[in-house]
Design a protein that fits this description.
7 helices, single chain, disordered N terminus, three-stranded antiparallel sheet, about 25% strand, about 290 residues
Length: about 290
């Protein structure tokens, strides 16, 4: 575990930033977490409390507020403790403007008395590989050439048959649910593989239906964008968060999730698709 782990998310259009980090390497039983928010002086903020399943998090003191130029810097410290294992500190959310605007930190990963569960970068940082796309341009050019040559030989014998109408592409909602059903029922995929699949299906669907580059954005960027959609029902933001972090829920769980895990993912995906499919009334502009 890196002794000092930074997580920072700052929207280009937002005047507020929030950072969280671990102050020093965790001991066998705990350590200290620091939360720091920078915002324009006088702006009223609503800062959520840090949470981590299985962790005991307690604030130390009343925090500190400093004035730097035209900004205020709020610093809070929390002690954390827990049994040996791997934990996730969920993102902290800072809201202002009657809750209409917000930013959030990235999640923090820490290990108490154990080695990290898996070497390498976290799944939330290394995005799932993009789905393979056939080289349609080359295929189309080759098909056109073959078709032209065939017509030259066959056209002398009979009239050219009418060209068949091109097959319509599946709507994004239908394509997403069918792709997830194939992955869900694939016995060759373990639970982690199915968690990767549902996150990838969600990204591809969100990009096609809501028209933003979800397949290449980080989880934090996607959630921040969805949070700005005025007509997206709030429960769907939590569904999106669970779908995007499905791999972490498998990788860092103290014990393997039960059969209800896939049922919950299935329900989250179907509910999100139902609320955002064409003609569902969701505006893509934030």
């Amino acid at each position: 575990m890196i002794p000092l782990l930074w997580a920072c998310l700052s929207l280009a259009a937002a005047p507020v930033t929030v950072r969280t980090w671990l102050d020093g390497a965790p001991s066998q039983v705990g350590g200290q977490l620091v939360v720091q928010v920078t915002a324009p002086a006088g702006l009223v903020l609503d800062l959520s409390e840090p949470e981590g399943l299985g962790l005991d998090l307690r604030e130390e003191g009343a925090g500190r507020v400093e004035a730097l130029g035209g900004e205020q810097v709020i610093t809070r410290r929390y002690s954390y403790s827990g049994q040996a294992g791997s934990y996730i500190v969920e993102p902290l959310v800072v809201r202002w403007g009657d809750g209409a605007q917000q930013v959030e930190s990235q999640p923090l990963y820490l290990d108490l008395g154990v080695e990290p569960p898996r070497q390498g970068a976290l799944a939330d940082i290394v995005e799932p590989p993009a789905m393979w796309a056939p080289p349609w341009l080359l295929i189309g050019a080759g098909a056109a050439l073959v078709g032209s040559l065939g017509l030259l030989g066959y056209g002398a014998l009979r009239r050219e048959a009418p060209a068949a109408a091109p097959q319509a592409a599946l709507p994004p909602d239908v394509a997403a649910l069918r792709a997830w059903e194939r992955a869900r029922d694939d016995e060759a995929l373990d639970l982690y593989g199915k968690a990767v699949a549902v996150s990838r299906v969600f990204r591809v669907y969100a990009e096609a239906s809501l028209r933003f580059p979800a397949a290449s954005w980080t989880t934090g960027e996607i959630l921040a964008h969805l949070g700005q959609l005025q007509h997206l029902p709030e429960p769907n933001l939590h569904r999106a968060k669970r779908l995007l972090r499905a791999t972490d829920r498998v990788k860092y769980a103290e014990q393997a999730p039960g059969p209800e895990f896939l049922q919950d993912l299935d329900a989250d995906l179907r509910a999100f698709v139902a609320a955002t499919r064409p003609n569902a009334g969701v505006e893509v502009a934030g």
